[in-house]
Design the sequence.
């Protein structure tokens, strides 16, 4: 089997904080979706959510605050799945809850380094 990186993209956060109830409403579908992938033995690495803050290191030791500040989209998290083909990984991505809120899933094959 090959490994594929699923990158979860969403509209850049505007600093809105979710209530505990809202957080629970969006967490359950994610747990169910990831659980279904794990039950098929296709989850290679669980993945994680990413903080909104961060830094970008550029050539000549230039460091900027906040990743991708000029973009409308932000990377919200990632997972690594294992399937036989890119098409199979895309089928798994089609069930991602981020799609129900206007987000997207980037599916990328992972090239293993020897």
Sequence:
């Amino acid at each position: 089997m090959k490994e594929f990186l699923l990158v979860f993209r969403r509209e850049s956060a505007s600093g809105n904080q979710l209530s505990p109830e809202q957080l629970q409403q969006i967490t359950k579908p994610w747990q169910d979706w990831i659980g279904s992938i794990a039950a098929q033995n296709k989850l290679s690495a669980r993945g994680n959510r990413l903080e909104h803050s961060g830094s970008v290191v550029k050539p000549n030791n230039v460091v900027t605050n906040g990743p991708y500040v000029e973009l409308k989209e932000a990377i919200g998290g990632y997972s690594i799945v294992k399937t036989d083909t890119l098409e199979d990984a895309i089928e798994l991505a089609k069930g991602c809850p981020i799609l129900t809120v206007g987000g997207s899933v980037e599916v990328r094959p992972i090239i293993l380094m020897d």
Observations:
- The helical segments are 20-39, 86-93.
- The longest strand covers residues 73-83.
